[in-house]
Amino acid sequence: MKEFLEHINHKNPNFQCFDCNDESETLNLNVQVYHTKNESASADELNKLRKLVKNGNEEIVEFYSIMNGVKMYCQNNQPKIELFPIHKLDDENEAWQYDYEGMESNELYDFQKEGIAFGEISQSGNYFIFYQGKVYYADHDGWEETILGNSFFEFLNEMIKDPSKFMYDRGCYSRFEDGKTNKQWIPKQYKSE
C-alpha cells in the first residue's frame, strides 16, 4: 500500500507513447497525466463494503479507509484506470453482471458468480473483481480466470510496477490523444519525478 500511495503522489507523471499504427513503436509523444483520489470512505460506506466483500476483505477495507476510489493516468478528465468509490459499486456490479445474462451457472467461474467489481480499465468494459481475498480480471473477450493479485495489495503493486505493460496486457484499451490529430497513442514507458 505504501508503494501505491507514493506512486499516485509522484511529481510530473507522464507516458512516452507511440502511434498505434507505427509498427516500429517509435516513442514520438510525451503525455502528462494526473491522478484524482477521493477522500477516505465514511464509516457507513466501509460497513457497506464489508457487507459486499465478506471474505479476506482486510486489505481492500484498508485501501478504502484511506481513499474512496481513485482515477489514474488521466488525460482531459478521462482516466485510464479507475477504482470505483463505494457509492458506485452497486451500479458498476449491475453493469458487469449484464455480461453474464442468459449464461448457466456451470458456465461461469466462481469469481464471476460471487465476486465484486471494484474497478476497470476505462473504456474496456472489463472489470477488476475482488473475490475471496484475490483480484481477478473479468475480460469479456477471453472468459478466462486471470488472477491479477493473490491479495489486494499485491494487485496494487502489480498495477504500478510497470503501468504501461499492465494496461497493454489487459487488452491495450488505454490510448492517449495528441490534441492535434485523430491518432491514438499507446503508452509504452511511464516516467515521473
Class based on secondary structure composition and strand pairing = alpha+beta
Supply the CATH superfamily name. SMI1/KNR4-like
CATH architecture descriptor name: 3-Layer(aba) Sandwich
Strand order of the largest sheet: 3-4-5-6-7-8-9
Q: Provide the number of structural domains.
A: 1
**Low-confidence region ranges:** none
Describe the protein.
There is one protein chain. The strands form two sheets. A seven-stranded antiparallel β-sheet has the order 3-4-5-6-7-8-9. The mean pLDDT is 92. The protein is 30% helix and 27% strand. The protein has one domain: SMI1/KNR4-like, CATH 3.40.1580. The chain starts with a helix and ends with a strand. By secondary structure, it is of the alpha+beta class. A hairpin with a 6-residue loop joins strand 4 and strand 5. InterPro entries: Knr4/Smi1-like_sf. This is SMI1/KNR4 family protein.
Offer a quick outline of the entry.
The protein is an alpha+beta fold. The chain has helices at 2-8, 43-52, 58-66, 89-98, 110-114, 152-161, 163-169, and strands at 14-19, 27-32, 34-37, 70-74, 81-83, 116-121, 126-131, 134-138, 146-149, 185-191. The chain has one domain: SMI1/KNR4-like.
Topology:
Blueprint: H1 2-8, E1 14-19, E2 27-32, E3 34-37, H2 43-52, H3 58-66, E4 70-74, E5 81-83, H4 89-98, H5 110-114, E6 116-121, E7 126-131, E8 134-138, E9 146-149, H6 152-161, H7 163-169, E10 185-191
Antiparallel strand pairs: 1-2, 1-10, 3-4, 4-5, 5-6, 6-7, 7-8, 8-9
Protein name: SMI1/KNR4 family protein
